[in-house]
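Bug report (template v2)

What were you trying to do?
Predict the complex of my protein with zinc ion.

What happened?
Run completed; filing so the output is reviewed.

Input:
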Amino acid sequence: MLPSGHTDYHVHTPLCHHAKGWPVEFAARALELGLSELGFADHNPMPERFDDWRMLREDLPAYFEAVEQARIQFPQLPIRLGLEMDYLVGREAWWEQLQAMAPWDFWIGSVHYLPEGWEVDNPKYLSRYRKSDPSVVWASYWRAYEDCIRSGWFDFVAHPDLPKKFGFRPEGDLRRFYEPAIQALVDTGLAYEINTAGLRKECCELYPARQFVELAYEAGVPVLINSDAHDPAELGAGFAEALQLLREVGYTQTVRFEGKRRIAVPLPVGAQ
Ligand code: ZN
Ligand code: FE
Ligand code: FE
Ligand code: ZN
């Protein structure tokens, strides 16, 4: 059991072709863990065939149906409906359509694609990353991340320092990358997530690094803890470590979402 008050809003489904466990299975696990709310955020569909790791446009009804099934089967658990949206320039007309398709609770803004045409977290591009200067890759990523925040389409942003996934980090103080993103969060009033998936990757660290969390806290930026589960076994994983970090840094509150409205609530209380 987790301390009471946790939510997990970054959860995938088999519709993205690289996750297992349907919403009913995640919901059953959420109740076992004592989560207060569960939220689905599968990889957003594109209007055309785009890549092999996201929901297809024609599977959207199946997504809504699967989330609805979980709500019917577990009425005691509030279940939120969201998407993990890839920030890509020039897709606004499609997002407009997508927005109108369901009563969304939240949209997460994510950057996986670099403007240079590759994916910073995809093992498929590891050799390309290995041959690159990490400071160039990071600069490109963080510029896109700032644009993602400032686009105004999203309720919070995912895994801030994702380009550290495989362990590639630029030399020196990383504040030069973090600060513009945090300023964008301040300017737009957006929240960011502590994503525990980093603990399960080569970098073996929460996304984002402690220094980012400290700067964001000082700037008054709201935060929430998510697992990025692609399997019910990953739900709530690493939450003790994430909660401890937030407490140490000084956070006393987190946020929830309902119908795109953000609600501030106290951090989970009690022993982990
Ligand atoms: Zn995924
Ligand atoms: Fe992601
Ligand atoms: Fe994800
Ligand atoms: Zn993600």
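What did the reviewer find?
The beta strands are 7-8, 37-43, 79-86, 106-110, 156-157, 191-195, 223-226, 253-258, 261-266. The first helix runs from residue 23 to 33.
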